[in-house]
Amino acid sequence: MDFRLTEHQVTINELARDVFSRNGNPERLVAVEAGAERIDRALYRHLAEAGVLGLLVPEEYGGAGLGLWEAAGVFVEQGRALGTVPLWETLVGGVLPIVRYGDAKMRTEWLPRVASGDVILSVAVDDVADARRFGARVRAANTGRGPRLTGTVADVRSAHLADAVVVPAADERGALGLYLVPTSGEGVRRETFERTDRGLACDLHFDGAAAEPLDGGPDEDRLEWLLRQAWIALAALQTGISQAAVRQAAEYTSGREQFGVPIATFQAVAHQIADCHIATEAMEATYLNALWRESTGRPATAAAHVAKYWAAEAGDRIARTVLHVHGGIGADVTYPIHRYLLWTTQLTNTAGSAAWHLEHLGDLIDEGERL
Description:
- This protein is of the alpha+beta class and 371 residues long.
- The protein folds into 3 domains: 7-119, Butyryl-Coa Dehydrogenase, subunit A, domain 1 (Orthogonal Bundle), CATH 1.10.540; 122-213, Butyryl-CoA Dehydrogenase, subunit A, domain 2 (Beta Barrel); 222-366, Butyryl-CoA Dehydrogenase, subunit A, domain 3 (Up-down Bundle), CATH 1.20.140.
- It has 11 helices and 10 strands.
- The strands form 3 sheets. Strands 1-4-5-8 form a 4-stranded mixed β-sheet, with helices on one face. A 4-stranded antiparallel β-sheet has the order 2-3-7-6, with no helix packed on it.
- This is Acyl-CoA dehydrogenase.
- Belongs to the acyl-CoA dehydrogenase family.
């Protein structure tokens, strides 16, 4: 295993850190949360101008032509800053499957506009009932005018903003595939609701909605591939959230005094924060292992389950501990630390809970897959 970053990857991380730090502050988050869209449009524009939105877009379509390894570091920085933009949804949920499975026409239509920040994409992976062993709730029928989708996918993050969504669906033979659905077409209805993290998501209802098949590229289980990318990206995002939360807890307890000394010197406090720090190290190691295996062509499904399990289980434990050591101010919604709990609570159950991933990991081990 070699988790060392190249000089180029370090530069990308520093670029993302600079963009997020220049655009992130608690007052701005309050304004975004109070808005109708729940997106920081200025931040999204700055990410496009810095080339971050084009990281995974091939060079011939106006991007940098890089991979998930480079994007993962950006997700960590987004988590640290709580950047309120649909980044993993657009890049991992939308761009990656279009690059891998889309035809030239689809790539030409969508990828340059992603790189320029003119479109937003999303993906229907929050509803784990769409995963292979459970079947798909959406059906794809070939009507002679191309595929038409019927059914419902639940909890599609940022779908109220998305110009198109990647949706898993089963065809007439029951075979699962991926389809790109423009949200402006007929037969698409969005039912929007607020999520735990104060973002917005939609239940998408399809009634003969036009779709484009993502059926090119390698002959493989396309849904499983997409889920692996999403699990790794989400684990990286949660790692950044948890690291920032622990850092803020350490700073707060080092400055908060009782009996004339910082409360960080009390063993009951110090040990809890130390446990949280160790957990973030494990989260980072497991997502990097999954990323390394995926990027080098090794079997990565079990490693991706491990990464997402650690992100969900340890992330939740860290968020609650951090809130606890802040005392009463941790429950004050005008103080920023509570947002790390809200984001973590949402991500814990995004694309599978800790228990869900543990169950699937056990099945894989029983089938003989090595970690």
